[in-house]
Amino acid sequence: MVTPQLKVKERENIVAPKHSESIISVTGTPKLEIKEVGKVFKTKKGETTALEKTSFSIEDGEFVTILGPSGCGKSTVLRIVAGLEEATSGKVLLDGQEIHGPGPDRGMVFQSYTLFPWLSVKDNITFGLKLKGASNKERDNIARHYLQLIGLEGFENHFPIQLSGGMKQRVAIARALANDPKILLMDEPFGALDAQTRNIMQEVLLKAWEESKKTILFITHDVDESIFLADSVYVMTARPGRLKKKVPIDLERPRDFSVKATVEFAEYKDELLSLIRDESLKAIK
Hints:
The chain has 285 residues and is of the alpha/beta class. It has 8 helices and 11 strands.
């Protein structure tokens, strides 16, 4: 059992002002710091502010989900952290070092199935390790470990075309973890899955997180998913996006699907649905 780094004893109301200040770490230097990060997209028709100056921090080993209405800048935040998008203002620090572009210290899992179709499951998982020059023995051991962790033993020689959507995403998660990044970034990785598979994948991910102790930043539209997975849920406003509220999730770990039937879970869901509804109505107006 993994004890989250940030344990909240009581529900907190942490509301961010329009230009929010960092949520200060209570355990030392945060793993990830987003400082006054903003993003303006320039087009032929003018400028569009996708993300207002926003600041927050994530602890080492913490599982954070970002929730908000469509177009609020959730994925923009993630892409800036990944180094795939350049911020217009502000900066991102990982272990105190400013991020400039993509790097192996950040693992990324997308909604689409980004496996190499010409490689087997095992070779997909160990692709990054091969680029790093890891020995065949080391790659074999790591592949065996993660195949067991994600429940795909016996499928190591299959190719992506032979796998279901859920199995492909398990391989994508294993590939990201096999590279031993400092933080795992996930952009609605279960969004394309059916409800039953999605629920199973949430439990698979929690098992992998409990075992790996990785810091995770997870983007989702799904309120239930955000509560079930997270230590803390960050709610964003309608576009232009900014941090509206941090909702710590004080549900006992390890968790399984039965927690979704509890009164405590329902209370978190009511609160988050109300916050998202308010922002969605603003977006429509």
